[in-house]
């Protein structure tokens, strides 16, 4: 889905690589502001300072702060999809799962992700466009996980008797619940990792 950020605006570098670098610079600055202050409390001037670019330069890439918010949400959703893809590409061993979850629950960046995801969820409750983005993303993610589960069943990695719908629903609810706990209790990251793996192993009927 294209946003206003995809429309050609005057003043952008002709070099595609330079253009992508500048967009990343702006998005990174916006992300830091949004994590610290939230979407609507962050001003364009604060974002420009955090990104190290002028306000005018931001508007060369994003027509409004709302367009910048949408672009950042789409980027976060893609990162989340990539994480889930990596998750289901492991051998499901305790070591592999816990190492992957450690990137979230044992790092400052992981906690920043939890804060941003909470902000995105709140925006989804207020903004119909964001709500639609989240619904579409969730639908695509569910289909992807279903395919991964069926592939694991076909290869004999997990039992063929497991219901993909039930697995997806349970693990999604567990993960989102633990992310909310992590939001307020970042020091409990290791405990949350252990709790998730136990739920994961039980759901997939693995030997932990």
Strands, helices and their partners?
Elements: H1 16-37, H2 44-51, H3 55-61, H4 65-88, H5 94-105, H6 108-126, H7 128-154, H8 164-184, H9 189-203
Describe this structure as you would to a colleague:
This protein is mainly α and 208 residues long. The chain contains nine helices and no strands. Helix 4 packs parallel to helix 7 (128-154). The chain is elongated. The termini are far apart.
**Large-scale geometry:** elongated
Structural class: mainly alpha
Helix count, per DSSP? Answer: 9
Order of helices and strands: HHHHHHHHH
Return Rg in Å: 19 Å
Q: Averaged pLDDT, please?
A: 90
Q: Low-confidence stretches at least 5 residues in length (pLDDT < 50)?
A: 5-10
* Helix content class: over 70%
Identify the quaternary structure here. Answer: single chain
The end-to-end span amounts to 40 Å
The major sheet is characterized as:
none
Q: How would you sum up this structure in a few lines?
A:
The protein is mostly helical and about 210 residues long.
Q: Keywords for this structure?
A:
75% helix; 208 residues; mainly alpha; elongated
């Amino acid at each position: 889905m294209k946003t206003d950020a995809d429309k050609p605006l005057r003043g952008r570098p002709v070099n595609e690589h330079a253009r992508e670098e500048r967009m990343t610079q702006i998005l990174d600055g916006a992300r830091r502001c949004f994590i610290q202050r939230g979407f609507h409390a962050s001003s364009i001037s604060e974002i420009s300072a955090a990104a190290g670019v002028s306000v005018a330069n931001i508007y060369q890439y994003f027509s409004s702060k709302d367009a910048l918010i949408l672009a950042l949400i789409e980027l976060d959703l893609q990162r989340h999809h990539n994480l889930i893809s990596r998750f289901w590409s492991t051998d499901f061993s305790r070591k592999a799962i816990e190492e992957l979850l450690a990137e979230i629950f044992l790092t400052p960046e992981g906690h920043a992700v939890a804060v941003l995801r909470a902000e995105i969820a709140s925006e989804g409750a207020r903004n119909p466009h964001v709500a639609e983005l989240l619904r579409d993303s969730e639908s695509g993610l569910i289909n992807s996980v279903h395919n991964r589960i069926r592939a694991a069943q076909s290869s004999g990695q997990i039992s063929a008797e497991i219901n993909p719908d039930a697995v997806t629903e349970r693990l999604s609810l567990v993960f989102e619940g633990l992310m909310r706990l992590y939001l307020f209790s970042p020091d409990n990251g290791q405990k949350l990792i252990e709790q998730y793996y136990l739920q994961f192993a039980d759901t997939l009927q693995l030997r932990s």
